[in-house]
Write a structure and sequence with these properties.
The protein has about 160 residues and is mainly beta. The protein contains two helices and eleven strands. The strands form three sheets. Strands 1, 2, 3, 4, 5, 6 and 7 form a seven-stranded mixed beta sheet that branches. The longest helix has 14 residues.
Length: about 160
């Protein structure tokens, strides 16, 4: 039994050619920001836009280079699909299997949250959308209050 580990089924496809993709199990890692895949899988997604190389820090505090590219369609089983990028890094398989990671940006965009007690992903009921106004007031926002704040800010300078 893997106490504390949450594994979810994920389907990732090339956003411009949905025939290029794959479905696999991935570890939910709220310490990672992006969807992280092994470089060995890169060709399975066909032609992706040339990405950028970034330095990333692993859970073992090792710094490695990741190739971030896309666009890809990412769908965590049971949650809405999103369009984003993925980070490809050199990974060593454990017992012949790679361990891709689902980072917090993908979780939030997918409207998925971690249930720590149930060791599972659950739907988010509300998105966090707060704005800090210049004088320090914090306001919950919806489209009406955003328009009112924009109007107030524009007219306060007159």
């Amino acid at each position: 039994m893997n106490v504390g580990r949450i594994i979810a089924s994920v389907t990732i496809e090339n956003a411009t050619d949905l025939s290029k993709g794959m479905t696999f199990d991935a570890l939910v890692d709220t310490g990672a920001s992006l969807m992280v895949l092994p470089s060995a899988w890169r060709d399975r997604f066909g032609e992706l836009e040339a990405g950028i190389e970034v330095e990333v820090e692993t859970a073992t505090q090792e710094t490695v280079t990741a190739e971030v590219c896309g666009p890809v369609r990412i769908q965590i089983e049971g949650f809405r699909p999103i369009f984003n990028e993925v980070a490809f890094i050199e990974m060593n398989p454990t017992n012949g299997d790679y361990e891709p990671l689902i980072g917090y940006i993908v979780l939030e965009q997918s409207l998925a949250s971690v249930d720590m007690l149930g060791h599972r992903l659950v739907p988010i009921k509300h998105l966090d959308l707060k704005i800090f106004i210049e004088d320090g007031w914090q306001a919950q926002t919806d489209s009406t209050s955003l328009r009112n704040m924009e109007w107030s800010a524009d007219h306060s300078r007159e």
